[in-house]
Design goal:
The chain is 42% helix and 16% strand. It is α/β, with parallel strands linked by helices and 232 residues long. Bound molecules: cytidine-5'-monophosphate (C5P).
C-alpha cells in the first residue's frame, strides 16, 4: 500500500501570483497546502478559491481564538468557502467550551484541530507567559491535547517534541499536524522546538508542516521530493 504524502507546504505569502506559482510547481510533490493569515487576510475568499481550486487539499491555518460564540460563527463563515478546507484550526487555550462550539460549526468532512503550544515558544517563553513553571512544555501540550479530544476535535497542532505523550494517551487515530520541521542543515529561523522530518515521523506525526525549507529553496519541488525520499 502506498502511504499518503505527509508533507503540508506552508504558503506564507500575501501575494496571489507567488502562491499560484508555488502550488503549480508543487502539485504532485506535497499532500497538502497550508494557507495562513498572511495570505488569507490579503487575498480573502477569492484568493483562497484560486489556490484551493488547484486540487491539493487545503489546511486553512487561521488559528481562531475568541469566545465560543464568536469562534463558532467565524467557523460557520469559513465553511461557506468553496471548495471547503480539508483542515481548519482553533487555539486549544480558548478552552473546552470554545472548542465544543467550534466543533458544532464544522462538519466531519473538514478536520478540525487545535493548536496546543506554538513551536516558536521556548520553555522560557512558556514560563514568562504564566504557565506552571514546574511542568514541562510537553505536559502543557498534552493537557491541551486532552481538552481537544474531549471537545470532539480530530486532532492537534503540536511540536515534534510533544508527540510522544500525545500518541501514548490519545491513540493512533488522533490527527497530529506538526510544524517546527527542519531538515538537517537548514536554519531554525524563529522556530524553537524543532525536529527533522524523519524524527517527527518516527515520533508519530501524521502531517508535517514545512514552510521555508521548501518555499525558500531554489527549486521547491525538488526540495519537497528530497524530503519525501528521505522519509521512505
Ligand atoms: O517556515 P516554517 O517551516 O517555520 O513554517 C511553519 C508554518 O507553520 C508557519 O506557517 C506557521 O504559521 C505554522 N505554525 C507553526 N507553529 C504552530 C502552528 C503553525 O509554526 N504551532
Amino acid at each position: 500500500m502506498t502511504r499518503a504524502n505527509p508533507i503540508c507546504v506552508a504558503i506564507d505569502t500575501p501575494d496571489l501570483a507567488r502562491a499560484r506559482a508555488l502550488v503549480t510547481a508543487l502539485r504532485g510533490s506535497v499532500g497538502y497546502v497550508k494557507l495562513g493569515m498572511e495570505f488569507f487576510y490579503a487575498q480573502g475568499a477569492a484568493g483562497y478559491a484560486a489556490i484551493a481550486g488547484a486540487g491539493i487539499p487545503v489546511f486553512l491555518d487561521l488559528k481562531l481564538h475568541d469566545i465560543p460564540n464568536t469562534v463558532e460563527q467565524g467557523l460557520r463563515s469559513l465553511m461557506a468557502l468553496a471548495p471547503a478546507p480539508a483542515i481548519l484550526n482553533v487555539h486549544a487555550t480558548g478552552g473546552l467550551d470554545m472548542m465544543t462550539a467550534a466543533r458544532s460549526a464544522v462538519p466531519a468532512s473538514t478536520k478540525l484541530i487545535a493548536v496546543t503550544i506554538l513551536t516558536s515558544l521556548s520553555d522560557d517563553n512558556i514560563r514568562a507567559a504564566g504557565f506552571d513553571p514546574a511542568r514541562q512544555t510537553a505536559a502543557h501540550a498534552l493537557n491541551l491535547a486532552r481538552l481537544a479530544g474531549q471537545a470532539g476535535l480530530d486532532g492537534i497542532v503540536c511540536s515534534p517534541l510533544d508527540l510522544e505523550g500525545v500518541r501514548k494517551e490519545l491513540g493512533r487515530d488522533f490527527l497530529t499536524v506538526v510544524p517546527g520541521i527542519r531538515p538537517a542543515d537548514t536554519a531554525a529561523n524563529d522556530q524553537k522546538r524543532i525536529a527533522t522530518p524523519q524524527a517527527a515521523m518516527a515520533a508519530g506525526a501524521d502531517i508535517l508542516v514545512i514552510g521555508r525549507a521548501i518555499t525558500g529553496a531554489a527549486d521547491p519541488a525538488q526540495a519537497a521530493r528530497a524530503i519525501l525520499a528521505d522519509l521512505s
